Model the fold of this input.
Amino acid sequence: MKQVSSFGIDPLDATFGAIVTDIKLAELSASDFSKLHDSWLEFGLLIFPGQFLSNEEQIAFAQRFGDLEFDLAAITNVDENGQVHFDPDEDLVKTLQGAMGWHCDSTFMPVQAKGAVFSAHIVPSSGGETGWSDMCSAYENLDKPTQKRVLDLSAYHSLWHSQSKMGHEPEVDSSYGFHDLDPPLRPLVKTHPETGRQSLVIGRHAYGIPGMDPAASEEFLQGLVDFACQPPRVYYHKWSPGDAVVWDNRRLLHQGRPWDMREPRVMYHARIAGDPKTEFAAHA
Done:
């Protein structure tokens, strides 16, 4: 195990990610956070077992990475009255099921998110894992002709698009991402602003490569996802209550995994805002 300051880093058996031990995120010194931030850039995903962060502590930890796109959102099938929702025709359930496709947060907004802090409060008896996939390694392992090809391509990103494929079309502004702005056009390859590594910008929100037939675009983009999201570039975390993670949204795709929605699952998500200088994309 590689030791970093007063805590331990145990790399995952993947091209990214590490489990961090001997640490209390709510009591992290400035010097240890600086080293933790370096590890975050190196590994892309850091997993902290058994933190049991309060909502306030989770927000405070996320704020150490920068301004927040939003401070805290419950990702759950339990409403404010404690009712568990599992009807597949409900908007809430459709939203949760949509997030089970590989995606990158906020690519459908003008400014893509920088990262996220996620914590587990109530987990089902089985299923409900979260998976991540390494888009830097994916790009670096494409064959040379495909690498060259994707450098010249872009795609639009829309939550409307990704959810409509499931038959889910809520009203405008009924929830985050269902806005009436033009969808941003993002290059399929971006350079990470802090590490300099190139990565694929793909996932379920991407569609409509300009100059390409829509069906051919869909097939090409899905082929990239299929190639990217396989070992050794993937990791699935089986949650225990109290676990927390932070990931780099500029490098990783992620997805939720199915569970029996008759069981409650309560997670909290704090989203770290992207830098408009590097994460902005306009409609073109």
In short: The two ends are 48 Å apart (CA to CA). The chain has one domain: 2-274. The mean pLDDT is 94.
